[in-house]
Structures are given as structure tokens and as C-alpha cells.
Amino acid sequence: MSKFVNDPKQFVPEMLKGIALANPDALRYVPAYNLIMRADAPSDDKVSIIQGSGSGHEPAHVMVVGKGMLDAACPGDVFSAPPVDYVYETTKLLKSEKGVLYLVNNYTGDRLAFEMAAEMAEADGIRVRTLVIDDDVAVSGSTHTVGRRGVAGNFFVMKAVGAAAECGDDLDALVALGARVNGVTRTMGVALSSCTPPAKGAPLFQIAADEMEVGIGIHGEPGRRRAKQVTANEVVSLLLDAVVSDLPFQAGDRVALMINGLGGTPIGELYVLYGAAHEQLASQGIQVARSYVGEYCTSLEMAGASLTLVRLDDELMDLLLAPAEIPYRVF
Amino acid sequence: MSKFVNDPKQFVPEMLKGIALANPDALRYVPAYNLIMRADAPSDDKVSIIQGSGSGHEPAHVMVVGKGMLDAACPGDVFSAPPVDYVYETTKLLKSEKGVLYLVNNYTGDRLAFEMAAEMAEADGIRVRTLVIDDDVAVSGSTHTVGRRGVAGNFFVMKAVGAAAECGDDLDALVALGARVNGVTRTMGVALSSCTPPAKGAPLFQIAADEMEVGIGIHGEPGRRRAKQVTANEVVSLLLDAVVSDLPFQAGDRVALMINGLGGTPIGELYVLYGAAHEQLASQGIQVARSYVGEYCTSLEMAGASLTLVRLDDELMDLLLAPAEIPYRVF
Questions:
Q1: For residue B304, is pLDDT > 90?
Q2: 3-state per-residue secondary structure call for A34-81
């Protein structure tokens, strides 16, 4: 299987234990609920922000817990929604006078878990609101989803509401802000290989060495079409065609551009894509004012990348520039 | 080939262009010499620090250029030393009254390029000193090397001398500091797969799906032995056995621990390795006081990881904690 694992069924707990051991001061780990939370959370002066999803997308979301981003993440197993009780127990531990905000990528399993947990928490008197993220333009529904999928663009929602929450914004304001960011964020990805969940022990799907899946989902769900591989410039063109036309982004727009690696693609290739995207956008009169290149929302060791555009305004730019203290540090 | 490339021969320049476009304020790119330099360098108040190597190891070293780390990097093609004239021209552009420090990982090609460039620069009246890094305990010589190889442990040397240079330390002091850090830094890696340089278009070496190369070099050079894959805990044991016994690290030592991904290994697996290493070290009485988990010195999309230990003292810890502003940001 060519993986660093012990018992594949223990992959997620062992990963979470490693994250906790590497960040003993900043993070608290509650093994019973796969829970990684800020050591200094919750605070009644601040809305608590919780994101859950399947594992296998690291650094999303367990490595994005910290001041200015998430207060907690409670992942499920690889590519599986967290159990309802994980979300419920996490919510109780993160209870705040100002309320709890759930950020949920739009997958049926995740939505159900968070909806049921919200009902249980509200019965306990905890005020909860949920923001669903659906930035992926590739398909309007798929194996795991009714409506569009939520993918790497969720980082912009997390960062914006995380920064605003630090400034004391209330729950309704954060929901409105997050919805506004989601509304100007669009993503599409492409895969050059499959990936192998540890407990499955076999590739999620089959793809020939010279093929690519255009519009891939982050759990290997089919995209728009299977095609022969093309050059980096052509990959960028087809991603931009889909993403730009969807909002649509227009000449004069100032944007953030993210090239997100899906796990198995070298950083150098991500920068080749970035350079092509930056120049193709410039030729359309769209100015990249902030850039993100690296791994944000991965699919284990899948070779591939996604491209996200966010239409910026001054308020959103300030929120993106606000400090964040997360374990996914560099050096 | 399952890569995002255009003309494979243009892979490195296109990557560098992308890095420059993503960091227009912080970095300056000089295409003629593959040169990425701090936009505000050089300064006569500070030693200029230059690192060169082959490409394909990103973020090393072109993404580690910035305040508190490198002043410039001038990489060669993938897994190839930079040409002498790239190093020489880079040196002239980074000339400082306080001198120029070369950081060179111990490979024959890199050493030759930097030695010849140093002679040329000194003939121009530029004061140059060179620090060779050789942290890899796996082999005492290999395909590309006389003596030990320099691998991911070079990040600790870069960080320490980079921080000290910002404080105004002179060239001789930086060389002494760098040698001291190199002297307490030990690394060994393991590969689960090969990788494919774009211009070669074929894997560097062959390895069966159930095998691993213990002590792999970052250019795919052979290590100590080829073996059947084992569990993550056992991988950590064999890496620690080699690394700990080499210095040797001892009960009571306070260390930095780096788990470096070689490019194709998911972050989650790196944290599984980290957790195991942290606990195995604790059981030997060795305390991890600072941790690094992620991609630092890669081999394109190779699946694998290396483990680095650094014996810390108060001075070195302060240098590691000093701020650095490099493009390899998170969010």
C-alpha cells in the first residue's frame, strides 16, 4: 500500500495524536470525539467556530485550529462525515454565550451530522447557526452531494469569519459574512491520479496514466469529464474557463487566487500552474491581489490541483490579511 | 507522465516565474541566473546568505528566501547543481561589505560550482565563506557525494544563521554558528516510491509496491538497504536507531524533531510518524521541545519521509523561534 500506517483503522486517531503532541501548548485533543480544539477555547466573548468533515483532507481542518481560524475540528474517518455525537459533544465543549457557528462543506453526510447535532445542542440551550459552503463549480450534484460541493474555497470562509470572530462580531454577522464570502468564491479541480484510503487499501477509482479527471471531487467523485492529459497552460485554461464564467469574474475585478495541491503533486508544479493562471487572468484584466499556493484541502496522496478565485473588496482583503495562529506553520 | 508541465525543459524557469508572480513585493526574480532574491537585498549591514542546489526539492530553497532566512537562492535544473556562472552572478548581485555566506549541501556538483564561484568572486574583492552541510547519517558516500549528504537538516542551519545574520553577526561568527548547528543535526530518510523528473520522463529508480529504500537520498540515490515495507512505528524505530546512535543523542537531551515529507506522502501520514517518534524519544528520555512536520526538502512527488533531530541549547532555541518572513506561508 506504500503508506506510513500501523493499523489502518487507527490511522485517524494516530494522526490526531501526532498533531496534538506537536502542538502541546496551542491545542487540546479529546480522543473520544476526534476533537482538536484551541487550548484556550471557548470564550464567552467570542463565537466558537467549528468545522467538521472527513479526514484525509489535511491540513483541512484539524491543522487550521487556532486563533483567527477555527476553534475546533471534529473529523470523521477518512472521507467520512463525523458521527453526530462527535459534533454534539464538540459543540457542548465549545459552548459560548455568543453562540456556535458550524462551517459545513456541502456533502449530504456532513450536513446530516451537523443538522442533528444542532438540534440536540439547541435543546440544551446552545445557540447554533450553520453555514454551508459550496464553492465547487464542477458539478451541480454528485455521489455524496445534493447541490454543489464544498472544497478548498472553504479556507477563505474560515479565514474571514475567523478573523471577524476575533473582533467580536456576533453570530448573525458571521453567518452573513461567511455567506457573502462563499458567494464570491469559486473552485474547480483536476486529478491526474487516484488515491488510496488506508482502511480501504485500494485506489478510490481507476484512471489511466495519460488521463485526467476534470472537475474531480475531493473524495474522488467524478467531475465533468475524463480526458487525455494536456499541458499545464491548457489545464489552467480549462479551470479558469469554468471558474471565471461561473460567478462571473470580470475585467477590473481584484481577486485572491489559490492553487491548492491535492496531496501528491510537487510544489514546483503548483507554481507552474500559478504562474500560468496569474498571467491568463491578467490578460483578461483580472488582477491577482493575493495568492495562495500549496496544500490546503487535499485528497490523501492524489496527484492533482484545484484553482480557486475569490472576488475581493477592501473588507475581505483586510480579513485575509489579519493574523492567524495555526499549527500548520512553516519554520 | 501525470505532471502539470508545459515544455519539460522549461519546468524550472516556469516554476520560478510562478514564485515571483506570487510574491511581487518580497522577491526579485532574475531569469538569466535562476535567481530568486529578497527584493530588499543586499545590505552592507548584513552578511548575504546564498543557498543553491538542484531544483525539485521545493520549498528548498527558492521558497525560503526572505527576512531571517536566505537572501538568495540560485537553483540548477531538477536534481542538478547550479552552473558556476549562476552562482557567480548571484554573488555579485548580493555583494555586501559584511561578506557573503554560501550554504552548500554536500554534493560534489554543488561544491564544485560554489568553490569556483567563490574563487571568481574573491578575485573581484568580494569576501566569501562557504559552509557545507552534511546531516544525512545514511551513507558515508554515494553516487553524487564524497562524505555524507546534506538533506532536510539544512533548514536548521539556514534558520539559525539567517536569524543571527539579521542581528548583525559577522561572517566568521555565522560560519562558526552554522558549523555548530550542522554538528548537532542528524537526518535519515526512507522512500516508498520513486519520482519522475519532468525532463527525464521516467522514474529515477525502480522499487516494488511493497518495498522501501531505507536511507534514501533526496535525488533517489541508494541508501543503506532495500527492505519490505513495515509499519509506521517500525519505520520510526529504524530511523531513530540510526539517527540517535550517530551523534549520539542521549537521555536528558532537548531536541527539535522534524518529520519532512518527500513530496508524495500525505500530511496525515507525516503526523502518524511524528506521534510515534515523539513517544519513542520520550521513552528514551529525550524531550522534543520544538517540532516541524510538513514538506521542507522534497524529491518531487516521491512517497517517503525523513526524520531529523537537532540537539538544542538555549541559544539555538532562540534562533529557531526568531521571526522569518518567507513566501512559503500558510494562510
A1: yes
A2: CEEEECCCCCCCCCEEEEECCECCCCCCCCCECECCECEECCCCECCC
Contact A2 B232 (CB under 8 A): no
Nearest to A232 among B2, B6, B274 (CB): B6
Q: What pTM was estimated for this model as a whole?
A: 0.97
Select from A272, A290, A295 the residue whose CB has the most chain B CBs within 10 Å, as the one to mutate to test that interface.
A272
Same domain for A234 and A189: yes
CA distance to partner chain A, nearest, from residue B130 (Å): 23
Residue of B nearest to A262 (CA): B266
CB distance A7 to A50 below 8 Å = no
DSSP-assigned letter for residue A92? H
Q: What is the pLDDT of residues A95-147, one digit of tens each?
A: 999 999 999 999 999 999 999 999 999 999 999 999 999 999 999 877 778 89
- Cα-based distances in Å from A65 to A19, A48, B197: 11, 11, 36
A33 and A171, same domain (yes or no):
yes
Question: Residues, chain B, total?
Answer: 331
Q: How confident is the model at residue B145 (pLDDT cuts 50, 70, 90)?
A: confident
Among B55, B10, B15, B8, residue whose Cα is nearest residue B202: B8
Interface predicted TM-score (ipTM) of this complex, two decimals: 0.96
**According to the model, what pLDDT value does residue A331 have?**
75
Using one digit for the tens of pLDDT, what is the confidence trace for A32-79? 999 999 999 999 999 999 998 999 999 999 999 999 999 999 999 999
C-alpha–C-alpha distance, residues B304 and B192, integer Å? 5
Same-domain pairing of B285 and B156: no
By C-alpha distance, the chain A residue nearest B209 is: A2
SS3 B25: coil
Q: CB neighbours of A137 closer than 8 A, spacing ≥ 6?
A: A148, A186, A187, A188, A242, A243, A246
Q: Residues near B195 by Cβ (< 8 Å), separated by ≥ 6?
A: B56, B203, B204, B220, B262, B263, B264, B299, B300, B301, B302
CATH number, domain containing residue A273: 3.30.1180.20
Which amino acid, one-letter code, is at A237? S
B34 close contact with A: CB closer than 8 A:
no
By the 10 Å C-beta count (0-12 exposed, 13-18 middle, 19+ buried), A289 is classed as middle
Give the chain B residue nearest A5 (alpha carbons): B232
* Nearest-by-Cβ selection for B330 from A301, A303, A326: A326
What is the total count of domains within chain A? 2
Same domain, A144 and A192: no
With beta carbons less than 8 A apart as the criterion, state whether B236 and B307 touch: yes
| Domain, as residue range, for A203 | 185-321
Residue window 144-163, chain A: list those with CB within 8 Å of chain B.
Answer: 155, 159
CA-to-CA distance for B217 and A52, rounded, in angstroms? 38
CA distance, residue B198 to nearest chain A CA (Å): 10
Section A281-295 average pLDDT: 97
Residue given cell 457557528 in the structure block: A101
